[in-house]
Each structure stands twice: as C-alpha cells, then as structure tokens.
Amino acid sequence: MYLGIDCGTQSTKVVILDAEKEEVIAQGHAPHSLISDAKGKREQNPEDWILALEQAYWQAVNKAAINPSSIRAIGVSGQQHGLVVLDAQGQVIRPAKLWCDTETAPQNAELLQALGGDDGSMQRLGLVVTTGYTLSKLAWMQQYHPSDFKRIAHLLLPHDFLNYWLTGQCMTEAGDASGTGYFDVRRRGWCPDVFELIPDASHLRNALPDVIDNQQMLGKVRPEVAKRLGLSADVWVSSGGGDNMMAAIGTGNVQEGRMTLSLGTSATLSAHLNTHYDGLHPSIAHFCSSTNGWLPLICTMNLTGVVEQMRQLLNLSITEFTDMAASAPIGASGLTLLPFLNGERVPNLPQAQGQLLGMTPLNLTSAHMSRAVFEGISYGLKYGLDCLLAAGLRPQSICVTGGGAKNTFWRQLLADLLRVEIVCPAAAEGAALGAAIQALWADHHRQGDPVNLTELTARLVALDESTRVVPCSEKGEAYHEAYQTYQHRLRFQFPELTL
Ligand SMILES: Nc1ncnc2c1ncn2[C@@H]1O[C@H](COP(=O)(O)OP(=O)(O)O)[C@@H](O)[C@H]1O
Ligand SMILES: O=C(CO)[C@@H](O)[C@H](O)COP(=O)(O)O
C-alpha cells in the first residue's frame, strides 16, 4: 500500500493506492480554514494542515479497513508557492502566505523591475516571477515583520513542511522549488543571488533546503509520527512536489504530448517537456516537473471560489446553479463576467477586481448570471491554451482533475471552447494519486529495482471513458464569438494589459 497526501487550498485529501490491485482503494478528506482580508491577504496556519492530514488519513484508513502497518511509503503533494518560515528550533514563525495572496503585489512589481523586467527574470530564473510566487512574500515580511524575518532559519513550501513534520528533514525538490522565484529552473538549483534584492536578507542563503532528485526518498517517518499514525517503523517518504506537479503524475502527464487541467481553487493547464525551452510566452510558468522534467503551466486564480460565491448569492445548490447556466444561451446574451475577485495571474492583473459587463433587461437573470460565471472563469484557460499551442504544445486530449472536474456541463463547455476532447481519470484525486505513485516509483529505486515512470502511470492511471466529452464545432463557433467579446471588454477595461 502507498499513501498519497494532497494539501490543497481548501482541503487535504489522502488516498490509499493498492499497488497489487493497481487501484485507489479509499480516500479521505478534511477542510482547511483561510485567514483573509479585503487587501488580498490569504494565509493559513501550517499546523492546521497537519490536523487536516491526520483527519483525512484516518478517514481513508478506516474506509479501506486496512492495518496501517501495511503502508510502505508516502508521497506528499502541496499547493504551490506558500511561504512557510521556521525558526532555528523548527517552530513555525507566522502563518503561511499562500499562492493566492495578492497583498504582496507591490513587492512583486518592485522585485520584477529590479530583476530587469520579464526579460531579466527570464534570464536569471528561466521564468517570469509573478504575484503569488514565494519571493515577494519574503520582501513583504522583511518590510512589515522585520524581527520575525530575522529569525528565519528554514524556508519551506507547504509540501516541504508536511515532509518535515513526517520525517524531521528540511529538504525539497525542483518541481515545487521552481515556483519560489529564487530557483533557476534551467539548472534546477537555487538562485540565492536574488536575495540581494531584499534588504537584510543574507541569512536566507543558509535557510534554503537541499534539493533532491524526484526518484529519491527523502527519509523515514519519525518514530513519534509512525506511532501516531499506526505505521510500521520502516515507512519511507518520497520527495513529493507541488500539487500541479503531482496532478501531472496522477493524470499520466509524464511525457510530451500530454496535458492536464486542474479545476481546484485555481485552474491550471500544464504540459510536459523533457527539456527547458526558452521561447515560451511570459504568461506560461516554466516550472520543473516533480519527475525530473519540466512542466510549463498556466494558472488562473479565480475559479471554483467564484462559482461558490455566486451560487450562494443566488441561494442555489451546485447542481441547480449548473442547470441554470445550462439553460441560458452560449455567450449569456452578451453578459460578460471578468471574474477577478481576488486579482488575477493570467491575465496578469494582480490587483484587479471583478466586473459584470453588458447588462440588459433581457440578460439580468439568474440563468444568464450562472452561465456568465462558468464562461468568465473558463476564458483565462482559452487564453492559456492558445499560449501553449503557440509554443507547439498540442494535446490530443486533456485529462481533467480537481473538484470542478465532476461537473459534466462545465467539461463540455471547456471542450467546446478549447476545441479539444476532455476526460477524467478514474481516480478523482489526481494530485493525491500522483503523490502515491511517486512514492511507489521512489520505493522501487530505493530497493535497486528502478521502474520507468511512464510505464507505471500507464498501469496505474486509468481513464474514466464515461466522462469523455468531444468538442462540438457549432458550439465552438458560438464560444469563439463570445470569447471575442470577452477579450474586447477585457482590453477596454484594462488598457494597461499586454496580452
Ligand atoms: N460539480 C462541481 N462543479 C463545480 N465545482 C465543484 C463541483 N464539485 C466540487 N466543486 C468545487 O471544487 C472545489 C474543491 O476542489 P479541490 O480540487 O479539492 O480544491 P483544492 O485542491 O484547491 O482545495 C470546491 O470549491 C467545490 O465547490
Ligand atoms: O499557484 C498555483 C500554481 O502555480 C496553484 O495551482 C496552487 O498550486 C494551488 O492549487 P489548488 O489548491 O487550486 O489545487
């Protein structure tokens, strides 16, 4: 048995993979709370992730009705970019600022300018640092919490922190590290020189964790944790990775030609590359994968949160809200939602607010509003796919995971808008499954019996063909027209935007 843990923005998910049966036999789930304010603060207490992990773990173990001592290894996936700071005693100094925190937009703008803009950032880091990446969170902390900043002895990301809790080791790997803004994604190594752009930050060089390869084990579970979780004394923990990196594994996206769409709190669209490619559009985050390759990715920040907020406003269940949307025509009769409630990463508008445009007596209805939500949150993905296509990354189909993947209407909308087939994996939790598969892969390597990851995912990632949706060209034309209206309105409202 292999355990996969995914610490997402809204919850932690745990899956148990039976490697002999080649299937997920149980899963567990526990929510997280968010500390937020109107200025863009989005933080969580790392200790809450541990509580959620334990809760989700016991749910999964009890559902599977297994003895936890049969678990051989663990892999951890985590929301990317979050800043977890520990002092010299290994204690958390302050809540973690998350990937979706936009309070640090001014610090990111300053740092990007100091790096020499998009081109300078690309030259030094191999990608363009964007609001949400870890670097600007450090600059913010130095500015507003200087004494806490001085105490930083360990710089971790959310999945690194859970690995630290499990094993006592502060280490990381290239996939998640590539979203920090102080990591050179070409070399797959730290770029501590960028700390010179932050005052009084020389101590951060010594706070960087060692980077291990993805097929390596990070360490064994600490005896105290093994006892708490009922594990044997000999359970190993793999390198793990960012949630998008692990979702790539859990959807079989470990070779060129594949693409993964994750519909969680964020929307991400990612491909696989065997080498780093310098010619990508600056909107594409040229991350490393957690499989020793690269994972060019587009991320939009406003997704299922917007659905949740609007359906609550209309007092509808998610099914009713979806049915409402389906009952309105494509293009919502001219109603367009620019859904940037919490700023946006793609398009690059970190401090934008949402806008509802084109209201008429005809379209100001719950049905049109619901449709405008699904369309508005999907257009950023259309833009992102166009950027990936321009780089020659063309998928035959897209494998979709995350909470929103369950929504058949939305999957069809995306297939029609993006003009590509969309299908779900049989195991719903792609990132948690990816983490379990990585643990199995690393376990083989540890035992001197290396297996090929592509073959492993071919065996372990089954697709649920009943979820496959095929694009309809007629609807595609209608979405194309609606997308033109969206783009026109976007440019008009945000003339500073370079698309
Ligand atoms: N049928 C559905 N349609 C749209 N959104 C859904 C549906 N089912 C669940 N969701 C949304 O999925 C989100 C959770 O997705 P998840 O991938 O677990 O997020 P994260 O990993 O960011 O915590 C919730 O906001 C939930 O409302
Ligand atoms: O910031 C990014 C990608 O760069 C996000 O995709 C986070 O990794 C959060 O993921 P979810 O909680 O939405 O899965």
TrEMBL record:
Record has Cytoplasm as a keyword: no
Annotated site residue numbers, Important for activity: D6
Start and end residues of each Carbohydrate kinase FGGY N-terminal domain: 1-250
This protein's UniProt keywords: ATP-binding, Carbohydrate metabolism, Kinase, Nucleotide-binding, Transferase, Xylose metabolism
Active site: D243 (proton acceptor)
Positions bound to substrate: Q80, H81
Catalytic activity: D-xylulose + ATP = D-xylulose 5-phosphate + ADP + H(+)
Gene3D superfamilies: 3.30.420.40
Signal peptide: none
UniProt-listed Enzyme Commission number(s): 2.7.1.17
MF terms (GO), sorted A to Z: ATP binding; D-xylulokinase activity
GO BP terms: D-xylose metabolic process; xylulose catabolic process
InterPro entries in the cross-refs: ATPase_NBD (IPR043129), Carb_kinase_FGGY (IPR000577), Carb_kinase_FGGY_CS (IPR018483), FGGY_C (IPR018485), FGGY_Carb_Kinase (IPR050406), FGGY_N (IPR018484), Xylulokinase (IPR006000)
Domain called Carbohydrate kinase FGGY C-terminal: residue spans: 261-442
HAMAP family tied to this protein: XylB (MF_02220)
Role description: Catalyzes the phosphorylation of D-xylulose to D-xylulose 5-phosphate.
Family statement drawn from the similarity comment of this UniProt entry: Belongs to the FGGY kinase family.
Protein name: Xylulose kinase
